[in-house]
Records
---
Amino acid sequence: QVQLVESGGGLVQAGGSLRLSCVTSGRTFDDTAWFRQAPGKEREFVAVIRRSGGSTAYADSVKGRFTISRDNAKNTVFLQMNSLKAEDTAVYYCAARFLGRLRDLKFRVVDYDFWGQGTQVTVSS
């Protein structure tokens, strides 16, 4: 029984900050990522973190503004979002996977097996 539950979304003014949380089931996934989907657009990669926390990657659109981190003791992955822009408005999803035969980080929706329900982030301008 695996599950991921996101929280922390809400309404914020442009330039403000939010911190999203993703609480997973007891088993710690190898990679946990954040994706987002705006109305009428494809779901897109935002950030990913390896279980150890030693490897992270970000979409170019959020580099320098968003930070992904994790607390394995609490089975939680965070996404700190600063300097928010109107174009960051989307439903944010937590996704997770276990490593397959390759150990590289993955950035595609199809690479992730487990998904949360999503949390709405709305940035007003």
---
Amino acid sequence: QVQLVESGGGLVQPGGSLRLSCAASGSIRSFNTMGWYRQAPGKQRELVAAITNGGITNYADSVKGRFTISRDNAKNTVYLQMNSLKPEDTAVYYCNAQTRVGAVNMYNLWGKGTQVTVSS
């Protein structure tokens, strides 16, 4: 029943910054992990960053040192701060929520995505 809505995408020049927001209609504490994925034209969807309820983060090697994922539980919102953007960061960015169902299965909830374009 929880829905995810991304915002903050747009057009930015190389070296610029953007902050993406993912607003959930329910408590993000209902999920073990919140994350951001992206899919560029002609490429597979890939993990960009993730954060657990315990605050442990994970980043793709391509964005380490440039992107920061964070969360505000009171606002039920997850953020992705993107600095030093490169043209290769151009993609549709999707918010993801994941939790375990039973001992083996996982449940994933996805937003509709927001376009990020890095171009001069």
---
Amino acid sequence: QVQLVESGGGLVQAGDSLRLSCAASGRTFSSDAMAWFRQVPGKEREFVASIRWSGTSTYYADSVKGRFTISRDNAKNTVYLQMNSLKPEDTAVYYCAAGGYYLYTLHSQYNYWGQGTQVTVSS
């Protein structure tokens, strides 16, 4: 099993930055990759970014390319999401996920999820 805990969300203004963290425990490295998703009420969970535990491969949704950066610290079993130039449309609950391949972008393709952290961007 893998346990995931997100943190770092908050209320910010458009153009501001936030750094989210996902602390993982359990069989983290049995998964190919970790990913960040986000979800707003009434909509499906949306892929944001992913990173492999080994190597340097990353993958981003078009909506966040150039603004968000995913990174990891394997020794700390932690994955980060640096979010810059935030927009109101980035407002969502952000979840980290494990158990999928780094190129997977559907929530059903990941087995483990955290409880999420709220990010709210005001205009």
